[in-house]
Amino acid sequence: MSIAMRDAFGKKLVELGVTHPNLVVLDADVSSSTKSALFGKAYPERFFNVGVAEANMVDIAAGMATAGLRPVVNAFAIFLALKATDQIRNTICYNNLPVIIAGAYGGLSDSFDGASHQAITDIAIMRALPNMQVIVPSDSFQAEQALEYALTQQGPVYIRLNRNAMPDLPRAAAISTVKVTEGSDVTIAANGITASFAAEAAELLKKEGIKAEVFSVPMVKPFGIEAIVESVAKTGRLLTVEEHVLAGGFASAVSEVFMKRGISCRFDAIGIEDTFTESGPYIPLLAKYGISAENIAARAMALSK
Amino acid sequence: MSSTVKDLLGDVKRKFNAKELSALAAYFRTVMFETLYKSQTGHWGGAASSAELTTALYFNRLKIDPKNPQWEERDRLILSKGHASVNLYTVLAHRGFFPTEELETFRRLDSRLQGHPSMNSTSGVDMSTGALGHGLSIGVGMALAARLKGQKFWTYVISGEGCLNEGQSWEAMMSAAKYKPEGLVLMVDYNKVQLDGTEDEIMPMGCLASKLTSFGWHVAPTAYNGHDTASILDSFAWMDSDDVWPKAVIYDTVKGKGISFTENKSAWHGAVIDDDSYAKGIVELNADLAKKEAVL
Ligand SMILES: Cc1ncc(C[n+]2csc(CCOP(=O)(O)OP(=O)(O)O)c2C)c(N)n1
User: Fold this and answer.
1) How would CATH label the architecture of A5-160?
2) Per-residue pLDDT tens for B156-202?
3) B2 SS3 class
4) Which of B111, B128, B133 sits opposite A279 (nearest CB)?
5) pLDDT digits over B10-29, tens only?
6) In this complex, how many residue pairs, one in chain A and one in chain B, have their CB atoms less than 8 Å apart?
7) Site to substitute for ligand 1 among B136, B194, B205, most atoms within 8 A of C-beta
8) What is the pTM of this model?
9) Whose CA is nearest to atom 7 of ligand 1?
10) Residue in A29, A82, A116 closest to B130 by CB
11) What contacts B71, CB < 8 A, 6 or more positions away?
């Protein structure tokens, strides 16, 4: 079990503050939750807590970026993606400003707070915006890599972070698609923290004699799809998994590429159906909405028949 | 004649007086604290802050019928600071909207008592909230609907100062000042502590009363004490004293009110209640309840 992404991200901000004198961090009265408070403590003069005003915060960051600073804005993913959409689109993306949007409490990870706080449409929104890059790290190491990568970019990057401590996955040298298990029967492409459930599913499938090739795919835009295409050429079967509504998210992105290239395969997608979610403990809540090793294994098995 | 909170809860339909409301609120605090402790999630600070306000509304003022929660002529209450859901649920349950036993299911999987109020899940909840900043605009809409339909219900919006940080709150204030809908009241639960720190550290409000006045609101000439139920009843009398709209009342409150070590502490905004804090806290809350029951 790793430390939570938010803790890793907060610590990484502090570390990068040393090497990046232009790095500034903004928060909207949730810095004790997002852990951007760590940066605020280390560099009070480069930290701006603007109150519960996400839209305002994003445009302040935009102004800073035009004048040579490298802002990272922090708030709950749902409120960045939905309350500050106009500012992110019309100021940040339209002008291709290098602002890093750190969406905390992504997916269902703010589990007890319920539907009002759970970000289930952020990936669809962010990936639809021209110039925006979208990263959904699968563990805290990838969250750190995402931040390092984003700081090398000349335009905006959205990083979706998770609230809770989740398992560590195999690492790659830079943020990219990672093969978690090797297999030849079915490909499982998992986005974000769903990758650890997919890895567990591969173990269950092994017992049934099915060899699943599991990938963790953090880069949604630009899309880390090539390894998946290669794998499906071998398996002929693809199951995608995401902590997001199926409309417009990861499965949609995969389908767009496959349809365009004329790749046909047996296909299934696990994600939140067209419904609002609810309050509850995180792991059982994920399971209720289809994200569990058991359900991934069952659906992969059905594909393999 | 001495009575207990239990006696009071035997007949919840009548209008309670200041002392009774005070005892009820003290009791509801114990229920809230226990509910949050048992569920190991939820927001104590803001719920403790609005305990007397919600109690006074539901047990003295609101025109409501728990048997007919969708009654068209009912007064509306929007808890714009939706994170204080445990406060709203506790008051609604004891007022008869749903069984008090159900409070135990707070924030559990499959519960009707969602983390933040959800109008399609819970009887008595007039509007879903949780994302801060929406409440006042929605209140303007409800009050305008009452005007258009010739109905006489009032719309009360409870907002924290953190909730007022959102730009939308100020857009709503301008709209309300433009349309002046009858029966619209903004009640500010002004505890001066947000999630991350004090209002001075996070977003200083300056003189809130003059801001509201300059935005065109009819603001109560004094701030009321939001934990003194007699003071709250005085504020209700002020609401009834003229026909000028929209009205705003600022209540001085204390975040985490009722437990010495949680008062005025942003750390207790949403902290999980550990065993030790529960043991110490519940003693203080019970002592306060006993004191208030003794003078009934
Ligand atoms: C749009 C939005 N941004 C952030 C949050 C997270 N949040 C919950 S409560 C809170 C502070 C609220 O302060 P206040 O309104 O003063 O409430 P109180 O002190 O009475 O609890 C914040 C920032 C939220 N619920 N909604």
Assistant:
1) 3-Layer(aba) Sandwich (3.40)
2) 999 999 999 999 999 999 999 999 999 999 999 999 999 999 999 99
3) coil
4) B111
5) 999 999 999 999 999 999 99
6) 97
7) B194
8) 0.97
9) B195
10) A116
11) B64, B65
